[in-house]
Amino acid sequence: MRFPLFRIPAAKGAGALALCLGAVFAVRALPAQVPSTSAPAARCATPDSIAVRGLSRVTLSSALGDLGLTPGSTLASPQVQGAIRRLYGTGQFDDVRAGCELAADGAKATLVFTVRERPLLADVAVTGTKAQSEGTISGKVDLLVGQPLDPAKVARAMQRIDSVYQSKGFYLARIKPESTFTNDGRVRLLFRIDEGRRLAISGVRVNGNTALSDKTIVGAMKTSPEGFFWWKDGEFDEEAYQGDLSERLPALYASRGYVDFQLLKDTVIVDRQRGKAYVDLTVREGPQYRIGTFEIIDNRRFSTEELERYYPFTGAGPTLTERVVGLTRGRLRGPDNDVFDQARWDAATERVQTAYRNEGYIYARINPVVERTKTGPDSVPTVNLRWQIEERNPAIINRIDIAGNDYTTEECIRRQLVLVPGDVFNQDRLLRSWQSIGNLGFFDTPLPFPDTHPSNEQGDLDVTFRVKEKRTGSFNFGASMGGAGVGVGGFIGVDQPNLFGLCKRGSLNWNFGRFFNDFQLSYSDPAIRKSRVSGTVSAYRRQSRFYVQGFGQNITTGSTLRVGLPVPGSYFSTLGVSYTADAITLRDVDPSIFGIGTCTSNCFRSNLGLDLTHDTRIGLPFASAGGMQTLTADFSGGPLGGTTAFQRYTGDFRSYVTVGQFGGKAPGSQPKQFVLGLTGKAGALFGSPGAFFLQQGFALGGVQYGQPLRGYPEFSITPRGFDPDAEQFNATSGRQAFGNAYLTMTAELGLRVSQQLYANIFYDAGNNFARAKEFNPTRLFRGAGIGASVVTPLGPLGLDWAYGFDRLSRDPITGRLRPDPKWQLHFRLGQMMF
């Protein structure tokens, strides 16, 4: 005879696992089946033995030990319930039932526990992930393979996965667990995910605002409603939304003087059927504060007058950089120095902090005090401002260490440093040293920022620069076979910018074919005999592939020696002195062009060159900030000898500023930067270059030969105007295609993806002039387009697609020129436009 005592019902059917997910099991006592006065019930209350049935994986001794019951002892309902809970607590069972069995004669009773074991987890997988990586979602599943499958843990895993998708705006995501059993009775669990589409914001409503319009408030948020254009998709991102509430909205109001702003309530109303959401915000703006008094206290290193220059509310308005950034971001406002602006106040405080750091006071504390009060008979809300300064002692650099350089010598790296042990610590010079090491191009970028840590009780600092070597140098070769008489061509190139780990550079380049044969060998030493004097020597032989009408092709052979000297008082300036000796031979010359007695074969040039360069660019080869200014003067002939005499002057001026960036938050990653660049180039030639006009005169157009102007063919911009007959490798205007003065200007907005990849939009303008006195900056040819550049083992490689606004074409019937603006594709190999 069997008497059921207690049980926990088990889920039935093939879908038992799914039905059990998230269930909380409770123990339920059943009423006695036999009156307590009966003999069977009395025997069950003191069982002679205890049995557990249904075990296959769990041992009987383990199950009996977990029950904690003793045969022969008197049992009541609480003891049996506790035993069942203990079995469930082991995590091994899906179902536990308790009953009593009497012997046929009723003399003995057995307490029987019937169990159903949980299957072991054989495998767990995730499928259907697109918006999130499979690894991210799998990391939210904390189920252990080889352990009993716990439905409660499966439910928790589903909740964690769902929270990830909700944080990214995927409120419509559905997670479904699917189970299959193996031959040995174990279970495979698959989380099948239907991500759905991201939740879209259909609208934002703001309550309680009177000073700022809804449009202004929503415009400051990253969470904006969907719009007509494709880039206004309105996708909801939980992180961006929280950033709006905690940072961007308070900053917006604080910049308008509402420093008491409060967000009282925020609600996201989700329509899961349509995949839409509505954001409802309630704000309390508070009063607008005006600026009252300002004072600086406890300053000794800087005078009060010096620090007052950093005070932002003096009527000076935004700086040039702030205006450029404001225009590009659409946030430029006119100055209102009567209203308190928290952002400007914080920025000014940071500039004061930087000023102290640059003088070595890295432990100085600038406490910006904002005292709220009411002034005047009308109780106008006012803030009294104060910089309370705790200067402390300046920090001295105790030592500088270099770590991670396995090949590059420490001496080579230290030459890039603009601070040395014993100096007072300077934040700007530390930053510049870090950038200069990265500019070498020998290490993985971005470099870790230098470590600084106190070296003694006085607060002096040890600085450590950490680098990671990367492969430098390249060896390239190739060959080609062309038809129509072109024949065999090829190239061999060897370039090592870090010879022997000493930052010395050596290169050899040979390009050959039927119509061209260019050879160049060069060697550079940035620190001759460990000094700040640099030197470069090069030898070359060039047979041009370009054909100039009336002059055919040319062959130039020569060498150059250049010495770079440091400029006192300017670490970033170099004065270069060079000497060049070369000879040129012109083939297939039309004698009527030069006239009798003019040199056309083995013409010799002896040239003395001077150049002054100030270079503060960072992030090379695609600069992200800084600038470069270069002035060059070349003197040929005269007392130097040679067959020609002339002077040539050129200038190159470039400036870069980062106007925005995104990404780069993960350790070791590099941010993507938007860079605004301005470039201006000009040159003038005085005297007669003779046969050397091919290299010393100014050709304009294209990107391969002479001065680049995109949107136009090579040699097409002449002193006489646009040449519609110019070809890619043929200057059909002959000598008239070359001018003695030129001007080009470029404005560009680029996306610097990394040190190897760059894309931009640009606007070019320039012209070519017969003489310097004809120089006219208002008469320029214009071009605009898009481009991309990548650094390859063969050198810089780029494509530009530009539209020439001022191109002309010749009417085939009348022969007259007519406007014919059009697009042109330019290919660059080895040329840098930036």
Automatic annotation (TrEMBL):
It is found in: Membrane. GO terms for cellular component: cell outer membrane. Keywords: Cell outer membrane, Membrane, Repeat, Signal, Transmembrane, Transmembrane beta strand. It holds the Pfam family POTRA. InterPro entries: Bac_surfAg_D15, BamA/TamA_POTRA, D15-like, OM_assembly_BamA. Residues 498-831 form the Bacterial surface antigen (D15) domain. Residues 122-196, 201-286, 289-392, 396-470 form the POTRA domain. One of its GO terms (biological process) is membrane assembly. Its main location: membrane. Residues 1-29 form the signal peptide. This is Outer membrane protein assembly factor BamA. It comes from Roseisolibacter agri.
